[in-house]
């Protein structure tokens, strides 16, 4: 995988470390749904944590999502897993995806 995919996964992980949102791309401090790139955003779902970065291409975003999907346990899918898992579980998911992407670089 490209260095850009690894960089985007790392950036997404940093966002999840700040806060995990369920049921929305991002939420503000009051729990209201906001755009993932909003300055008010303080928690993100897996997809939203990747979407905040406008400097990455759609292809890089898609490859990062595929890397996360490949590491998602069971058959839940990334969206459902991110909504139902703990923050620690989602951070571990990002760690697995980053390690796999680095191994393919």
What features would you describe in this structure?
The protein is mainly α. It has one domain (3-104). It has helices at residues 3-18, 46-51, 58-71, 78-84, 87-104; strands at residues 26-27, 43-44. The mean pLDDT is 93.
Helix and strand arrangement:
Layout: H1 3-18, E1 26-27, E2 43-44, H2 46-51, H3 58-71, H4 78-84, H5 87-104
Question: Share of helix among residues?
Answer: 55-70%
Report strand order across the widest sheet: 1-2
Number of strands: 2
Spell out the helices and strands N to C. HEEHHHH
- Largest sheet features: 2 strands, antiparallel
The parts where pLDDT drops under 50 for at least 5 residues are none
Overall 3D shape: globular
Structural class category: mainly alpha
The overall number of domains is 1
Rg result? 13 Å
- Number of distinct helices: 5
Ends apart, CA distance between termini: 5 Å
Q: In percent terms, what proportion of residues is strand? A: under 5%
What is the average per-residue confidence, as pLDDT, rounded to a whole number? 93
Overview in brief:
The chain has 105 residues and is mostly helical.
Notable characteristics:
105 residues, mainly alpha, two-stranded antiparallel ribbon, 5 helices, 2 strands, 58% helix, globular
């Amino acid at each position: 995988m490209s260095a850009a995919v690894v960089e985007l996964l790392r950036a997404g992980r940093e966002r999840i470390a700040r806060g995990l949102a369920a049921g929305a791309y991002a939420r503000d401090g009051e729990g209201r749904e906001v755009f993932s790139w909003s300055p008010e955003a303080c928690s993100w779902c897996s997809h939203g944590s990747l979407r905040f970065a406008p400097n990455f291409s759609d292809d890089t975003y898609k490859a990062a999502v595929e890397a996360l999907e490949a590491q998602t346990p069971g058959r839940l899918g990334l969206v459902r897993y991110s909504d139902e898992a703990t923050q620690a579980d989602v951070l571990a998911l990002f760690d697995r995806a980053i390690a796999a992407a680095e191994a393919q670089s």
